[in-house]
Target: HTH cro/C1-type domain-containing protein
Amino acid sequence: MVLRMNSGARKTFMGVRLRRLREERGLTQVALARLLEISPSYLNQIEQNQRPLTVPVLLRISAALGVDVQRFSDDDEARLVADLRETLGGMAEPVALAEVRELAANMPAVARALLALDRRWREAEERADALAARLGEDRGAAPFAAPMPYEEVRDFFYARHNHVAELDDLAERLFEAWTLQPGRTADGLAARLAQVHGVRVVRDEPEGAGGGAEGEGAPLRIFDPAARVLRLSPLLEPGQQAFQLATQLAFLEAGEQIDRLAAGAGFRSEQAGALTRIGLANYFAGALVLPYRRFLEAAEGLRYDIDRLGRRFGVGFETVCHRLSTLQRPDARGVPFFFVRVDRAGNISKRQSATDFHFSRVGGTCPLWNVYEAFAQPGRILTQLARMPDGRTYLWIARSVTHGRGGYGEPEKRFAIGLGCDLHHAARLVYAKGLKLDDPEAPTPIGAGCKVCDRPACPQRAFPPVGVATAADENRSRFEPYAAA
Model:
């Protein structure tokens, strides 16, 4: 297990987290100091952030109190910093990055409360916009009420670092119990459906998909519960067939667990709960087709070579990337990845994170990000070292994928897949070969979207950051790239 306690040479001060943990356990400073075999004065200095939390003391805390050392990782702090910078970016009085980091490190509960208040304010604004649109009024903004359930679902997975242990463990046990073989799971899953659930699998054109079963919008999977028939689209490759079969089995074999997870999330809308059930079923399917330990061992052995992993397990590029972003089991962690799928217009249709990388929910993403270059070089894997405004550097892998839907003249779905990780993990990936990982000038400066990016000299800036548009005239000349045209 890799524990990242520091970013660069920065000391790790975790006094507030340690004090909160102590108070949750009902311990005094003297009692905890005795358990950790340190002096009460030393413990007091740690809690007051006068002394850093060292690795030996952290390991004693883990042993004495039975807590995961990742609780003291700075990844959660980095997520809070990124979210706070976006939330506070539009304030009339700028909030310095140092103050934001201090708030995230020493008062994380207050920071999360601020984010919750901001989220509720945005939802109220979105509901007002939607109501104004229905009444024929113009509040100066388009309605955003419809995507709100999707935001809730993304937050559900984001809070879990894109790892759902209950479903992952169950899928792995079932893979072994059913004696499935990596890369050849479709037949075994179909046999399970038939023998245990009485479901017959038919691989032909689904009925009732108007305009031709292979046309635009035709479903990939149709289940008739009365007839106990599961119809799969003939367009599916073997790996895609296995995934669809596993998704159907998710509802039949893990339906109780999926319902419990969705019901316990406290969603505000029924639609968010329904979408989460689908997301959890897809998660279970990926975990069943690509069982955790087998897949992690293969990934480590092949240095995370996506194409070779795809051939070994019989699945496509996108499926491998999505699964790589979920390998965060506490006792067997893979590289923490951020996974994203975008179209040419910059619409993000999938976004999953096992790390702290953050893209804005406001105003698009960064055109300097290599995921957009992937459309210009179809099928080729592109690599990029990219540095965010907060100084963090990432290795990004991007490639375009095409989802064929039918015959001649019918449009294809084309996306770009991005998979990124923090620079300190880059050496574990085959894609780091030939890159200047130690060169501070090598990374491309990118941002989380123009509205929240504070790089004034960026040649691709489309509009100023939130709050800059009303600045004095003498400051506006810095943003000529978007003002000229």
Summary: Residues 333-483 form a domain with the Beta-Lactamase fold (CATH 3.30.450). The chain is about 45% helix and 10% strand. Confidence is low (pLDDT under 50) at residues 1-10, 136-147, 208-216, 468-485. The longest strand covers residues 393-403.
